[in-house]
Amino acid sequence: MTQTMTTVDVPEGTEARTKRARAVRYGRAVPFFVVPFGVLFLLFYVLPIGYAIVQSLYTVERSGTFGPAREVFGGLVQYQRVFENGPFWSSIGRVLLFGVVQVPVMLGLALLLALLLDSGLVKGRRFFRLAFFVPYAIPGVIAAIMWGFLYSPNLSPLKPITSAVDFLSAGFVLWAMANVVTWVYVGYNMLIIYSSLLAIPAEVYEAARIDGAGPVRIAWSIKIPLVMPAIVLTTVFSIIGTLQLLAEPQVFRSFSSAVSSTYTPNLTVYSTSSIPNFNLAAAFSVVLALATFVLSFAFLKFTQRRGVQ
């Protein structure tokens, strides 16, 4: 006995109406996801930036020595003061030197730890993932205080070392802070790179092993090139974080006289607003934001050009 099957043709007009109805239904759901983000983005990102730009265009004047202060439009007067401020540009150079040394060391360690966890040579991966990430869970201020006590010759339990090397002196305090930042953020960056490693298909490794590639060759020729987007991402985050360095130098001012109120750009902004001179602090903030954007954008363009070549 043969069984015959019949097919029912759906009119083209009905199918088109169904697709349109589905598109309209999905379109109505879009605002519920976009509007909350848009409102928060506007309130806590766009408006503060706009307010800082407006404030940077005003200056404070007094009628007489003890007259009441009033804000008047000053144009680019505050920006002229920013570009004439030597300590601010010295702090920019200081954090750039900090970033040139600290960022590659930190990301190199993060990449090495991620490769070790992904290699299969390490047992107890869950424990080590958590152990590497724990420093990031500690607030930056607490981490700086803890390391400040370890560096202090009078308070440190490592007195033989801190007595021989003054980590809080003018020549070492920048790198002492670099060590704190590295300790805090290595695990965070390691997780980003490790997550990218887990996304690589196992067939790629199998093909490499068939061709005779060993673990080192696989790591160098396959893993690192494939996780390069994650490395670029963490580098951009690190560039932004370097120019925004604040918690560590602010805490280290309590331990070292080598850290001044203008030691980093963000500390300069904080100290200026504490005078208070909010208009000049706003101009500092705008220039710092532009510098951060230019450096991050230039790095992305450089990596994209290298990728094309």
TrEMBL record:
Residues 92-299 form the ABC transmembrane type-1 domain. The keyword Cell membrane applies. It is found in: Cell membrane. Pfam families: BPD_transp_1. It is a multi-pass membrane protein. Its main location: membrane. InterPro entries: MetI-like, MetI-like_sf, UgpAE/MalFG_permease. Keywords: Cell membrane, Membrane, Transmembrane, Transmembrane helix, Transport. Gene3D superfamilies: MetI-like. The chain crosses the membrane at residues 29-54, 95-115, 127-147, 167-188, 226-247, 280-300. Belongs to the binding-protein-dependent transport system permease family. This is Sugar ABC transporter permease. It comes from Paractinoplanes pyxinae.
